[in-house]
Amino acid sequence: MPDRLVVLYRGNLPPATGLIERLADTVYATEEELPLLLPGADVLLAWVTITPAIRESWPDNPEKAPRWVHASSAGVDSFLFPALVDDPGVTLTNARGVYEQPTAEYVLGLILALAKDFPGTWEHQQRREWRPRPSDSITGRTALVWGTGPIGRAIARLLRAVGMRVCGAGRSARTHDPDFGTVHGPTTLGSALADADYVVLAAPLTQHTRGMVDASALAAMKPGARLINVGRGALVDEQALVDHLADGRLAGAALDVFDQEPLPAESPLWDMPGVMISPHTAGETTGEREALIEVFLDNLTRHIEGRPLLNVVDKRRGYVT
To answer: Which domains does the chain have, with CATH numbers?
Structure first.
């Protein structure tokens, strides 16, 4: 076996460990064990991805660092530290292809739940109250999907399929996009925010997107609009969001990710009317673990056979181009 593979895990090992062990000299490391086991490894499978352990355990000597790191996630912000990014000999791949459709379905579910006030219906049910009331329609409503990568595109396609008007927001403006129609750049973003009934965040967390939804962006949103975040918590200035929700300018928010996870119990977001909170589960499905390991095993076979890897991340941009 030519390669030494370290699998970083927390709690449960990934499936198909027997197959992995037949393909590579495999050791398993918790976050606490990683500093001892990572130096000298050829490959790192990060089954845990939202953790400082990889950065903190990265060898000072580049010759001791892995040549290939695979993230079992779509987002790779935990991996974008200088020692990994600046080393041209380290290839970073991710789990592109696993989370797109589940996340799109989750976003559609959130939009329907907000428009139809399902949380209010369930509260009335718990109190045995019969409270007929009208709800919003989503047909013809405008969704601005901020983030035009694979997850954003899957969201756009699904929202279009149910009759919503969809546009995108990204680093560069363009028209005639097959999924978004119009993609707004920085110069037209303000008008797009002012027109959107739902603003959906699906961007990766990079140096350019951190804090992109600040007080000015929130102020630009249409009164009564709703914010949905399935990207990363740090895309949003949470205090500014709390302030805009509290003054009633926004009708609500559905938040799956947060700057600090788990969301602290003392956060005011827990109790704010019109706010739905989920524990970073937008892309999780019952078959997620098997799908993730299939992506890795495909690439591991390619690595062993000397073929090009799939889902190679542009480490400077922070996503697969």
So the answer is: 4-98+286-320 (3.40.50.720), 100-277 (3.40.50.720)
